[in-house]
TrEMBL record, chains A, B:
<dbReference type="GO" id="GO:0005829">
    <property type="term" value="C:cytosol"/>
</dbReference>
<dbReference type="InterPro" id="IPR014709">
    <property type="entry name" value="Glutathione_synthase_C_euk"/>
</dbReference>
<dbReference type="GO" id="GO:0004363">
    <property type="term" value="F:glutathione synthase activity"/>
</dbReference>
<keyword id="KW-1133">Transmembrane helix</keyword>
<dbReference type="InterPro" id="IPR005615">
    <property type="entry name" value="Glutathione_synthase"/>
</dbReference>
<dbReference type="InterPro" id="IPR014049">
    <property type="entry name" value="Glutathione_synthase_N_euk"/>
</dbReference>
<dbReference type="InterPro" id="IPR016185">
    <property type="entry name" value="PreATP-grasp_dom_sf"/>
</dbReference>
<dbReference type="Pfam" id="PF03199">
    <property type="entry name" value="GSH_synthase"/>
</dbReference>
<dbReference type="GO" id="GO:0043295">
    <property type="term" value="F:glutathione binding"/>
</dbReference>
<keyword id="KW-0812">Transmembrane</keyword>
<protein>
    <recommendedName>
        <fullName>Glutathione synthase substrate-binding domain-containing protein</fullName>
    </recommendedName>
</protein>
<feature type="domain" description="Glutathione synthase substrate-binding">
    <location>
        <begin position="292"/>
        <end position="391"/>
    </location>
</feature>
<dbReference type="InterPro" id="IPR004887">
    <property type="entry name" value="GSH_synth_subst-bd"/>
</dbReference>
<keyword id="KW-0472">Membrane</keyword>
<feature type="transmembrane region" description="Helical">
    <location>
        <begin position="467"/>
        <end position="485"/>
    </location>
</feature>
<dbReference type="InterPro" id="IPR037013">
    <property type="entry name" value="GSH-S_sub-bd_sf"/>
</dbReference>
<dbReference type="Pfam" id="PF03917">
    <property type="entry name" value="GSH_synth_ATP"/>
</dbReference>
Amino acid sequence: MGVGCSSSLPPTVNNPHCSITFPHTSAHTNPTSNHLPINWLARAHLQKPTKSPISKRLFTLDSARKTPTLKCGRTAQMEIEGGSDSKPILDLHSLDDNLVQKMVYDALVWSSLHGLVVGDRNVQRSGTVPGVGMVHAPFALLPTVFPENQWKLACEVAPIFNELVDRVSLDGKFLQESLSRTKKVDAFTSRLLDIHSKMLEINKKEEIRLGLHRSDYMLDEKTKLLLQIELNTISTSFPGLGSVVSELHRSLLKNYGEHLGCDVNCTPSNDAANRFSEALAKAWIEYNNPKAVIMVVVQPEERNMYDQHWLSFNLKERHNVTMIRKTMAEIDKEGEIQPDGTLLVGGHAIAVIYFRAGYAPTDYPSEAEWRARLLMEHSSAIKCPSISYHLTGTKKIQQELAKPNVLEKFIDNKEDIAKLRKCFAGLWSLDDADIVDTAIEKPHLFVMKPQREGGGELTFWINRHPLPLSFVLAFHMLTGLFYCLQGTISMVMM
Amino acid sequence: MGVGCSSSLPPTVNNPHCSITFPHTSAHTNPTSNHLPINWLARAHLQKPTKSPISKRLFTLDSARKTPTLKCGRTAQMEIEGGSDSKPILDLHSLDDNLVQKMVYDALVWSSLHGLVVGDRNVQRSGTVPGVGMVHAPFALLPTVFPENQWKLACEVAPIFNELVDRVSLDGKFLQESLSRTKKVDAFTSRLLDIHSKMLEINKKEEIRLGLHRSDYMLDEKTKLLLQIELNTISTSFPGLGSVVSELHRSLLKNYGEHLGCDVNCTPSNDAANRFSEALAKAWIEYNNPKAVIMVVVQPEERNMYDQHWLSFNLKERHNVTMIRKTMAEIDKEGEIQPDGTLLVGGHAIAVIYFRAGYAPTDYPSEAEWRARLLMEHSSAIKCPSISYHLTGTKKIQQELAKPNVLEKFIDNKEDIAKLRKCFAGLWSLDDADIVDTAIEKPHLFVMKPQREGGGELTFWINRHPLPLSFVLAFHMLTGLFYCLQGTISMVMM
């Protein structure tokens, strides 16, 4: 039996006009992992071995593969199936400034009362101690117009991508071979591959597999196609705050919808926090040790902790499951594996390991963290993700899967294959000389993406001044170029 | 027809042990108005003239005079009807320190996710801009044991006190005469009395009267009697955060009750935020101008703004009534009265004026604020409170009401009178030489209270060092003397 579930977040952009009217506009969260994507779908996925044919192994928690319905039917906002270019519902510049200011004030109050908060980087302890140095999370004041058919498509392909990740993860040889050249130039991926190799050597089986994934999409301006930018398989952020942002938007539309000419029912609710918790709880049940807990692996400083706390709160409140928080260093210090494979950390048996750290080289400042990762991988705990799921999320694998006849190795259903392929944006590595020439010639048609998770590792040079990636993305957004996507360059340095 | 409603907050003390384990223990809120009382009952009250006899004018919004029930019946915690001395449910010192630390962590997370926050005084804009510089509100980790019968009594007498306030407020001569000596020595009360006189002169009638009151009680250690310390008729704080604290306690008891030996059902829920909003909405409906709004009068800097925002959020969410925020200075600048008596502020017709400022001399730094107060009093808007209700809440009036045969002037029902009188703590002014001698001789038996609202205006001297009132209260609490109350001294300087 396998379990998968999908949940969606309505597409949101940070509207530049609104952002600059907010009292607090600096980025609070770590740009290497937590930048709020333009459009994303959060997806939960749990696989367990079964005797049933692989093509029928996916069991939905509730409504996976069933596209959520909108109460509004096809209104003006959602009807723009071929004509939308992901603009906010309304052009705020055309609105009365007093009205916008009122909405901003109400939104700030609402955020404070409903836990839409992050740690303020100006307050020293805000990344380590909850309840101090809080500031509203950065948010878009209103949701973005998004074509209903593309949104439904994103919901529809979510469980197919889950299935794809699971099947690719089971093909150790494919992973090792596809990443063999990356291994030579990327020390971090190389160490992940070493752990993967060790697991292959001892024939370690992950009998229960849990994925909490997030696909990031952009809508192509010219073709109006939904193009997948990346599929995150580790530390997918914002299921918690993303759900709350949707509620904020619904609250604002309820109160101001009449002035804006928008119907609150056109904004789909976002159940990601509950669905993620549900999937974690389901994994905990499958592990079948009532005394065990779920462990979330965290960075020593985490200003986006409340996004994670929403999950732990939901887990306790709705499923009576306890979640503990440990850093990689703490796991190295306190962790041990019992003869039956049970991972003990600080005396707690661990049923599920939920990674919200461990995706970037900076998460492994010493050998202690690598020891911890290996220890966890050796244990019988359900890893979210396992080393195989983690590697499956790399851009290089994404690129491999986009090659002709590769998807067919992993997915049987032709229709499913066609749906996935339709979402693939062009994806090239930098060793393709022709495409590099084209990119230099027409830079506005390309976006450069790092090989690893989290972004923010690229440095762009403009007029000899280095600019961090997040700035470049913002720059693109302000100039409107961010939506002119036709392909991505996978920056695999080989 | 008159409307009154009562709501209750379970008694809570700041347990010194827990408080000092919190990351943020400094007082965040203005001690002159917002110190969290040890035990309090929040009460809402709306009066409207009717032809029915005065003794039957009180109409309950829903469950006033009906004591809330507890699901636990009479458990060990609630049974201590004669033996409690308001201790926390458990002595935290006897608990495992890890357990306490876990509860503290969970409580801090819960507070952050559920809007139990205040502005941090270390962040400059935290008192003016919502969503920035937030920190968890100071709270007691667990509720306090409190005798069920006394709690029920407090709920029972709440509407009787409401009725008393209303009737006293209608007796302008009684108010003026009782406060005539205070007027000579207290410039602030003197100016309030001037406004009151002007209203009497023009025979101004408040046809719809709204009171949002809070009675603060202590349990006398020796007699086990519930003694009223003061009755607040203006700017009663913490209906919003108080309700959230109760939910926090219920959440902690739900998760840790088994370890603590406590049943969550023994903690009554606190509906003060909803009840206050309900009463404000009811007043808005009675005013009968669908375009009018409710105006909350605020201080220019208010770090306890989220307590107020909970009410405005509830008003909008549950009653679709808009609340705007204005300072006294803004009201002076933007306010005007139309020929029909309607108060316009910034173009908004005002149905209800809800004071969360205006109770202390510091709220009137210039003549502008006094002009604003007079303007509001002249208008047809429903004032919460009117100048009469405000004056009725002074200690001097409380003291007058405690004299023999005074209650009888205002309340007909003998049983009601007996119930109120049972709650009166001894109350003396400083012109009673005998009682002053007794207080000097046995200082631990007395608490000194200022004449006006908000506290914090007294300065105590210990070893020649001045100590603010809040420190003295904390000092008493730590030494246990805070509960040895036998009487209060009303510090009316005459």
